């Protein structure tokens, strides 16, 4: 759903965002432009663009680059749930208020197990809600806001390189989509280039600490052309495995079911997908999904991962570049947006009177929420998925755990509080 009137890739660094310098005069004859900019951001997904937006609001230029084209990012489906705080930040920081018109506020969710539905009422339990607003829409809003505000974003670059990250004059070099070569001379470089990006690997091996765990299953994600089957999201546990019923629009629904990480989408005609999904949500209440043509099918692998340190010299990592969570509970985007909120504050202090010592606050402030989200995502994943070869004991233990979650106010409130997020001050 691209809505941009201006292609940000057409807005060059010489015109906006940083000060253009004559390459020959600064000993960089091999590039076409050299731009001095306080912050260079590698990665122009939601984390990178939100950071550039927050800095821009405070009068600090940030130039972002991304290997992917804008169209490519806009057509990559990701999760769809935003915490109310993140939704409010989009509106209140002036990105866009489209979420209020086109998003859907959800005041609860449904857990299905043992063939029955159990509603978790976020509003009644913890006075909170979440917004169903796909990540691609968040990205579109941010890319439009950057274009509107004159921020420079280079989509579709190649050969990006970060140089001198261990000094106080780090540089980012890249080839723009039109084949011209550019250098950004920054005070800080932010790596917001996701879990497969290059930035996390710039931290020297002897300093890198990697924490993580793998799961013996993946998600089979589909887009189905059909009306909604339920008013809220449905997270289903069954002896056949997990399923999640989410939505995109009135006529397009997003659904997932647990599968083998090596599953081949070609082996899944529409009938097989529907039979699998129906079996996983079936129950004594007669609940059934409304079926329709499957528009897209993808296998999504996932894991839990955190890399420390999140800062090395003048390089700071944010979002998936530093950590990833399984998709159960939709924490990933929310966590990335929290990282950059903290990081924007810290960078503004570091670029201002306080200087570099301010950066020391970033990792501890970000990590606290990261580990809470790691715990919650991993807990919710294990609570709802069926490990291959799980024993009858394990299945019954899981049902006991689910029953303790929905059967006590404390259990329901715990889930509601974690799912809707935590205020950044906590
Ligand atoms: C989605 O709508 O894509 C979605 C929703 C909730 C999740 C994960 C994904 O936990």
UniProtKB/TrEMBL annotation:
InterPro entries: FAD-bd (IPR002938), FAD/NAD-bd_sf (IPR036188), PheA/TfdB_FAD_monoxygenase (IPR050631). Keywords: Oxidoreductase. SUPFAM superfamilies: FAD-linked reductases, C-terminal domain, FAD/NAD(P)-binding domain. Its EC number is 1.14.13.2. GO terms for molecular function: 4-hydroxybenzoate 3-monooxygenase activity; FAD binding. It is an enzyme of class 1 (oxidoreductase). Gene3D superfamilies: D-Amino Acid Oxidase, subunit A, domain 2 (3.30.9.10), FAD/NAD(P)-binding domain (3.50.50.60). It comes from the Bacteria. Residues 36-375 form the FAD-binding domain. The keyword Oxidoreductase applies. NCBIfam families: PRK08243.1. PANTHER family: 3-(3-HYDROXY-PHENYL)PROPIONATE/3-HYDROXYCINNAMIC ACID HYDROXYLASE, FAD-DEPENDENT MONOOXYGENASE. This is Putative p-hydroxybenzoate hydroxylase. It comes from Kitasatospora setae (strain ATCC 33774 / DSM 43861 / JCM 3304 / KCC A-0304 / NBRC 14216 / KM-6054) (Streptomyces setae).
